[in-house]
C-alpha cells in the first residue's frame, strides 16, 4: 500500500512558522478526519503530537496545530524553536480498517 | 500510565518466523477501551503500520503483510504478540509495539514501547 506523501525536508528560522503537508487520497485523508502527526528525534520513540486532524494531546505545546483540506493534511509549527528539530510523520486511517503513514519530513531549525 | 516493552530475538534467519512479544504494564490488554498495535521502521526510513488487535481477538493487518502475519493477545500474561513468517532481509527493522488508550481510537498511538531491532540474516 502506498504511503502518504510528505516533503522530505522543511526548514525555518527560530520564531518563524513552518507547515508540513501530507497528501493522500479520498480513501484515507480525504475520506476521514482521522489524521495524526508524530514527532521523532533520531534514535528515539515517536511521540503523538496531533490526532483527529487538529486535536492536541495533553502536554503538547499549542505552537503545534493541524488542519486538513481535501486530500491534504497539514501540520503547522508556529514560533519555531530549536527543540522542534526532528522528523515528523503523518498517519491516516484508510478504508478497510487499515492505517497508512507518510514518508516523514525532516524539520531543520536554521 | 501504560508502559510497553518489546522482547524477542534480535536475529532471525531468512525464511524463519519473527516472533515478538509486548508486555503491558499500567493497563490491561483486556480493557475494552484499548487497542494494541505493531509498527516497524526500516533502518533510516519511515514508519510502517503492521497491524492491531483488540482484546476480543479482532485483528486488522497491513495488506502488504497480511499473508505472513499473526497478531495475538495473551490476557493471562498481559501481553500481545507478533508473528511474521517467511522473513527476508526486507523485514529487518526496529519493531515497536504501541497502544491506543486515551482516545479509544485504534489508529491513534499515544504510548509506544522503546522498540527492538530485528535483523534478518543468515
Q: What features would you describe in this structure?
A:
The complex is a heterodimer of chains A (110) and B (122). In chain A, the strands form 2 sheets. In chain A, strands 1, 3, 4, 7, 8 and 9 form a 6-stranded mixed sheet that branches. In chain A, strands 2-6-5 form a 3-stranded antiparallel sheet, with no helix packed on it. Chain A has 110 residues and is mostly beta strands. The model of chain A has no long low-confidence stretch (mean pLDDT 96). Chain A has strands at residues 9-12, 18-23, 35-40, 47-50, 64-69, 72-77, 86-94, 98-101, 105-109. Helix content of chain A is 0%, strand content 45%. With 122 residues, chain B is mainly β. Chain B has strands spanning 3-7, 11-12, 18-25, 35-41, 47-54, 59-61, 69-74, 79-84, 93-100, 111-112, 116-120. In chain B, the strands form 2 sheets. In chain B, strands 2, 4, 5, 6, 9, 10 and 11 form a 7-stranded mixed sheet that branches. A 4-stranded antiparallel sheet of chain B has the order 1-3-8-7, with no helix packed on it. Chains A and B meet through β3, β7 and β8 of A and β5 of B.
Task: Walk me through the topology.
The complex is a heterodimer of chains A (110) and B (122).
Chain A: E1 9-12, E2 18-23, E3 35-40, E4 47-50, E5 64-69, E6 72-77, E7 86-94, E8 98-101, E9 105-109
Parallel strand pairs in A: 1-9
Antiparallel strand pairs in A: 2-6, 3-4, 3-7, 5-6, 7-8, 7-9
Chain B: E1 3-7, E2 11-12, E3 18-25, E4 35-41, E5 47-54, E6 59-61, E7 69-74, E8 79-84, E9 93-100, E10 111-112, E11 116-120
Parallel strand pairs in B: 2-11
Antiparallel strand pairs in B: 1-3, 3-8, 4-5, 4-9, 5-6, 7-8, 9-10, 9-11
Amino acid at each position: 500500500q502506498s504511503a502518504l506523501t510528505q516533503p522530505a525536508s522543511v526548514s525555518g528560522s527560530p520564531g518563524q512558522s513552518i507547515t508540513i503537508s501530507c497528501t493522500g487520497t479520498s480513501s484515507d485523508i480525504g475520506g476521514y478526519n482521522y489524521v495524526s502527526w508524530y514527532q521523532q528525534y533520531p534514535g528515539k520513540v515517536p511521540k503523538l503530537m496531533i490526532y483527529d486532524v487538529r486535536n492536541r494531546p495533553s502536554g503538547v505545546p499549542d505552537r503545534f496545530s493541524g488542519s486538513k483540506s481535501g486530500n491534504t493534511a497539514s501540520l503547522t509549527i508556529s514560533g519555531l524553536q530549536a527543540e522542534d528539530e526532528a522528523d515528523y510523520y503523518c498517519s491516516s486511517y484508510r478504508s478497510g480498517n487499515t492505517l497508512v503513514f507518510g514518508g516523514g519530513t525532516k524539520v531543520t531549525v536554521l | 500510565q501504560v508502559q510497553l516493552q518489546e522482547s524477542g530475538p534480535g536475529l532471525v534467519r531468512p525464511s524463519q518466523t519473527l516472533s515478538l512479544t509486548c508486555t503491558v504494564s499500567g493497563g490491561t490488554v483486556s480493557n475494552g477501551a484499548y487497542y494494541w498495535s505493531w509498527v516497524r521502521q526500516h533502518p533510516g526510513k519511515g514508519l510502517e503500520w503492521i497491524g492491531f488487535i483488540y482484546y476480543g481477538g479482532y485483528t486488522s493487518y497491513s495488506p502488504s503483510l497480511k499473508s505472513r502475519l499473526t497478531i495475538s493477545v495473551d490476557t493471562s500474561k498481559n501481553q500481545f504478540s507478533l508473528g511474521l513468517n517467511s522473513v527476508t532481509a526486507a523485514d529487518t527493522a526496529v519493531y515497536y509495539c504501541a497502544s491506543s488508550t486515551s482516545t479509544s481510537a485504534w489508529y491513534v498511538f499515544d504510548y509506544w514501547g522503546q522498540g527492538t531491532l530485528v535483523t534478518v540474516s543468515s
